[in-house]
Specification:
3 helices, mainly alpha
Length: 81
């Protein structure tokens, strides 16, 4: 397996484990929701960059991340309501 893909896979596992552990933490649900959403954005960054190979096309990666961040803000706003 390519070392870049193995690193990406490891990062995705770590971010997923972090999300799972946050569900067990006894903290404010709004804070844990925000943290889980941020971890999901980190995961999307890894997937876009490594698996879809957008590291070589930073403008496209930036465009996708802007859209994903906007969507995440919308989802978090709806979560708070």
């Amino acid at each position: 397996m390519d070392k870049r893909l193995a690193t990406a896979w490891s990062l995705l596992l770590v971010f997923s484990l972090g999300s799972a552990l946050l569900t067990l933490a006894r903290i404010d649900p709004r804070a844990s929701g925000a943290a889980i959403l941020i971890l999901a954005l980190f995961k999307s960054r890894v997937i876009l960059g490594r698996y879809l190979d957008l590291d070589g096309a930073p403008a496209w990666r930036r465009g996708f991340m802007i859209v994903l961040c906007g969507f995440a803000l919308l989802v978090f706003g709806l979560y708070l309501v």
